[in-house]
Design goal:
Elements lengths: L16 H4 L3 E2 L1 E6 L5 E6 L2 E6 L2 E8 L3 H9 L1 E6 L5 H7 L9 H4 L4 E2 L8 E2 L4 E14 L5 E16 L4 E2 L2 E2 L1 H4 L2 E3 L5 E3 L13
Antiparallel strand pairs: 1-13, 2-3, 2-6, 4-5, 5-10, 6-9, 7-8, 9-10, 11-12, 13-14
Length: 201
């Protein structure tokens, strides 16, 4: 089959696009408003987009609290979601009003960050402290901005639980990262294999 996303002419009960570009890591973004109100929300439109400088991206569908907070303060923490935090992550995805603390709703404790004001999730295996470098509404070919706004942030501090390190490297199989598939489907990284790049010639 072939379809054009703008026309939604796929003839299926659900658009398969997000299910095809998967699995996607989940950035669990903690932020603070200028008034000091805490927020925690998961984003599956998230990724590391460069390592020199180290830049992460998350994309907000509409003006959610995370977007409003980073616009006000220029800081956020990306907590990397693992299997153990699946239920708490899902709870924090509910559309709570800005004054509600998602950490409390999800039964989570906060842990102070080192270089930014927003806290991180206590007990999380990895967290990235970030400062905003760019906030950009995403426009299509017609030049009109859609519902999404992309936030880019430079990683200025990295927290890693040494329990997920083995031989000086992150043990991805032990890490048990949670990933978003399409629809309401998720996956846990369980099988890992190594593949060396070939030499040209």
């Amino acid at each position: 089959m072939f379809y054009e996303p703008a026309l939604r002419n796929h003839g299926l009960s659900h658009d398969p696009l997000k299910a095809l570009v998967a699995p996607r890591p989940i950035g669990w973004i903690s932020s603070l408003s200028a008034a000091g109100v805490i927020n925690l929300a998961p984003y599956s439109f998230f990724n590391l987009v460069s390592d020199r400088p180290p830049i992460v991206m998350f994309s907000s569908d509409g003006r959610k609290d995370s977007l409003a907070n980073v616009e006000e303060t220029g800081e956020f923490v990306c907590n990397i979601v693992t299997e153990a935090f699946t239920a708490a992550m899902n709870t924090s995805s509910a559309p709570f009003p800005p004054e509600i603390n998602e950490f409390e709703k999800a039964g989570l404790a906060v842990e102070a960050s080192r270089l930014v004001k927003p806290p991180r999730v206590q007990g999380i295996a990895a967290a990235l402290e970030c400062k905003v470098t760019d906030i950009r509404p995403l426009a299509g070919l017609n030049g009109h901005a859609g519902r999404y706004t992309m936030v880019l942030g430079e990683v200025i501090g990295v927290h890693v639980d040494e329990a997920i390190l083995k031989g000086g490297r992150v043990d991805a199989q032990h890490f048990r990262l949670l990933a978003r598939l399409g629809y309401m489907d998720y996956a846990v990284v369980e099988r890992v294999f190594e593949l060396q790049r070939p030499l040209a010639g």
